[in-house]
Design a protein that fits this description.
- It comes from Rothia dentocariosa.
- This is Transcriptional regulator.
- Pfam families: DUF6318.
- This protein is α+β, with helices and mostly antiparallel strands.
- The strands form two sheets. Strands 1, 2, 3, 5, 6, 7, 10 and 11 form an eight-stranded mixed beta sheet that branches.
């Protein structure tokens, strides 16, 4: 059996939702007939479906990270099932990592996003591109999600919810104006709670995701002037502008 929870939220974040606000609801229903698919999805999301031919190369003083493998949307992501929902979430996690390494929106655009998520991704991509023009980037940034439960919960509106923790690691080194510098250990990694809410669209046979981020729990949101000027700690795109603008 899948657990049931409320689809309501009570705390404002960048998407107007609360990553910690889905309380159990005895009145929840399961109109779509979702059932446990027998897998344990808890822990760090893994993904192994990539376009062939690329060998990843971290950045250096001459260039930003290169040849990051581009994820491919799995065939089962079109299923209206727990398996399909997880496949879409796992793909998005890989696509987000691809974005922070490359500044490319090609992968994340293949998932329909609700709220402000698409705009935040676009802002991050723009800032990364601006940083590259200024010969400013992180050498080996990475991003990933860890799911808190083995199976998603069913919200009171009948849609699915995975609770997770989002981690952004800037890596050990940055390049500013072509010069390599170490990243301060206390500023290197930050984490945030993140809810993945999923709604299946039977017309397009795909999942629409709504991501709700909670308060940043570690790291330093003010490490970059660009980040502190454009958003708060609950906005991962604003904080991640450091990925294109390391502290000078």
């Amino acid at each position: 059996m899948l657990a049931a929870c409320s689809s309501n939220s009570s705390t404002n974040t960048s998407n107007g939702n609360n990553a910690n606000g889905s309380a159990p609801s005895p009145k929840s229903s399961n109109p779509h007939g979702y059932s446990n698919d027998g897998n344990n999805y808890s822990g760090r999301i893994t993904f192994d479906n990539f376009e062939p031919g690329n060998t990843y190369e971290p950045g250096n003083a001459e260039h930003p990270p290169q040849n990051a493998p581009m994820p491919k949307l799995p065939d089962n992501a079109n299923e209206n099932s727990v398996t399909g929902f997880h496949a879409t979430v796992a793909y998005y996690a890989a696509a987000r990592d691809y974005l922070v390494k490359t500044g490319s929106l090609d992968a994340v655009k293949k998932v329909k996003l609700a709220g402000n998520d698409a705009e935040e991704n676009e802002a991050l991509a723009k800032t990364i591109a601006q940083g590259i023009e200024q010969k400013t980037w992180y050498v080996d940034p990475s991003a990933w999600y860890e799911l808190k439960e083995s199976q998603p919960a069913i919200m009171s509106d009948g849609n699915l919810l995975f609770k997770s923790v989002y981690t952004f690691d800037y890596g050990a080194e940055s390049v500013t104006n072509g010069e390599i510098k170490p990243v301060k250990e206390e500023e290197r990694v930050y984490t945030q709670d993140c809810d993945f809410r999923g709604r299946y669209n039977p017309t397009t046979k795909s999942w629409e995701l709504n991501l709700s981020y909670g308060t940043k729990s570690s790291g330093n949101a003010a490490a970059s002037p660009a980040a502190s000027a454009t958003g708060g700690a609950s906005d991962p795109a604003a904080t991640e502008e450091q990925a294109a603008n390391p502290k000078k």
